[in-house]
Amino acid sequence: MISIKSDSEIELMKIAGKIVGDCHKYLIPYIKEGITTEELDDLAEKYIISRGATASCKGYEGYPKAICISVNEEVVHGIPGKRKLKNGDIVTLDICACYKGYHGDSAWTYKVGKVSPEKEYLMEHTEKALFVGLSQVKAGNRIGDIGAAIYEYATKHRLGVVRELTGHGIGSELHEDPDVPNYGKKGTGPLLKEGMVIAVEPMLTAGSRQIYILDDDWTIVTGDDKPSAHFEHTVLVTKDGYTILTER
Ligand code: MF3
Ligand code: CO
After folding, report:
1. Which ligand 1 atom sits closest to the C-alpha of 218?
2. What CATH number is given to the structural domain containing 30?
3. Distance CA 26, CA 248 (A)
4. Is residue 1 part of a domain?
5. Cβ(56)–Cβ(97) under 8 Å?
6. Is 2 within a domain?
7. pTM to 2 decimal places
8. What is the CA radius of gyration of the chain?
9. For residues 26 and 7, what is the distance between their CA atoms, to the nearest angstrom?
10. Residue 126 has what pLDDT?
11. 80 C-alpha to center of ligand 1: Å?
């Protein structure tokens, strides 16, 4: 069942989304060579709590940390730890916050120092793929329109499209119906209606789309060790388009 949010729910989701967007902005100056992913996680959790919210990922299906931090070939769900960021890394911070029972979710990939042209290209076109997907979000369109647009854009730029993980509805649960895949067929899938809230999140790779999960049972990495990027916004579906709730 896809929920339509009431005005008061939307107000809370705007606050949750703003906390997530502001948390990204807060962390940017810390994304530097030498910092450990655990230090970034700690800063994120303290920031989210200082805003009267909680980190939605912590304890979600047993997830041990406040946010997900995925470096280079890690696609999603990297667990923060002792790893130090190095010049030339790309790092995705996937931040979810819960405010008065409602969630916001946004992932963004950042450069550490100077990165290779391959990584620059991957990041540029994954971010663009997010906005190409979002351009299909409006009441009356279908979920398949979003995925078809992202897939077409990504493949035109010779990037791999991860299929096993998708965007999702979001609200009082972090993951709600519908799934929002990064592939699909125009004009198919659930109908978008005013008041739905979805997270659109292309996860693209510089090589093959094959992925596997590490022994920690969380971290998902590319099969060919090529880098991966991930850009995600939580958006409210409106009559003529969408409103980004996780603006940064
Ligand atoms: N933004 C992540 C997702 O949509 C949230 C993961 S929370 C975790 O998959 F606990 F599963 F890591
Ligand atoms: Co998400």
Report:
1. 12
2. 3.90.230.10
3. 10
4. no
5. yes
6. no
7. 0.98
8. 17
9. 28
10. 99
11. 13
Q: Whose CA is nearest to atom 6 of ligand 1?
A: 57
Q: Helix or strand or coil: residue 121?
A: helix
Q: Which residues form the pocket of ligand 1, taking CB atoms under 6 Å from any ligand atom? A: 57, 60-61, 63, 68, 77, 94, 96, 105
The answer to the question of residue 185 being in a domain is: yes
Residue 137's nearest CA partner among 243, 233, 237 is: 237
- Residue 91 CA, ligand 2 centroid: distance in Å: 16
Residue 210 tokens, joined: 């094959």
**Ligand 1 closest atom vs CA 105:** 1
Spell out, as residue ranges, where the chain has pLDDT lower than 50: none
- Other residues' Cβ atoms within 10 Å of the Cβ of residue 172: 15
Percentage of the residues of the chain whose pLDDT score is greater than 90: 100
Digit-coded pLDDT (tens) for 150-166: 999 999 999 999 999 99
Number of domains in the chain: 1
Helix (H, G, I), strand (E, B) or coil at 139: coil
Q: For residue range 39-67, list pLDDT tens digits in order.
A: 999 999 999 999 999 999 999 999 999 99
pLDDT of 72: 98
CA of 57 to the centre of ligand 1 (A): 6
Centre of ligand 2 to C-alpha 32, Å, is 25
Q: Atom of ligand 1 at shortest distance to CA of 77?
A: 12
Q: How far apart (Å, rounded) are the C-alpha atoms in residues 144 and 133?
A: 10
Centre of ligand 2 from the C-alpha of residue 106, in Å? 7
Amino acid symbol at 121? Y
Residue 105 lies in a domain: yes
Residue 237 is part of which domain span? 7-244
Q: What is the pLDDT of residue 131?
A: 99
